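Project channel, design review

CF: Before we commit to the Pseudonocardia bannensis constructs, I'd like one complete example in the thread so the newer folks can see what an input/output pair looks like. Taking MOSC domain-containing protein.
RD: sounds good, go ahead.
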Amino acid sequence: MKVARLRRYPVKSMLGEDVAAADVDEQGVEGDRRLALVDVETGRVATAKHPRLWRSLLSYTATGGPGGVHITLPDGRSVPADDADVDELLSGLLGRRVTLSRERAPGAEVERPAPEDVLEHGVEAEVDFETLEISQGTPGATFVDYAALHLITTATLDRIGVEAIRYRPNVIVETPPGYPAFAENEWVGRELRIGAVLARGTLPTPRCSVPTLAHGDLPRDPRAVRPLMSDNRVDVPGFGVLPCAGVYLEILDGGPIRAGDEVALH
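CF: and here is what came back for MOSC domain-containing protein:
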């Protein structure tokens, strides 16, 4: 197996970028999800997991490393993340008051409707949601959903049949012909060597409605979660039985990862 693509997402729930190489530490890929919008009204982190409020974030793109992040707006304009007026600009475009935060508050939460409810009632519907504390499996103050790295295999992506970008992984692993889909379920508790990085699987990656939403020019696609609902519901410790694709990883020993690096499972 090898690293087919390596990605980072400088601002949570915005589109990100491919990188040829990245340093990885216990908090994850350098520059990944280091920024996020916080809803002034609720104090919660803005995420497309709640599509009625925040799905438009997936029409914005964030690129660049720490201290040099730029946000490309839906109309093509680019603004530095550290621009003095960025909060006012984004609040006006999104229709809700937000602040661009550089450090996650203790106990920070997001709102997450069940993907089944979003598929049944539509992205505009007011459906019930749960509030979840993010980054429970990662030290530091980044805005990852749970753990430092999120990995998915080409075998799983091929089985589902939609674009990898919809699942927002850090590492896409190319697997050999015949490799089983959803094998990541079995990687929990096992160690992986990814380039110079030693990691360990912690949880299968639960899926919300985000993969089904429009991502930039990609239209909505319910196929992104339906095969998971029928074929890969997994008992995720602490979260319940959920549709899953991919695996979360904790970092045991950091270092660089490059596209093309070997991936070995121990």
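RD: helpful, thanks. The chain has five helices and 19 strands.
CF: The first helix runs from residue 51 to 54.
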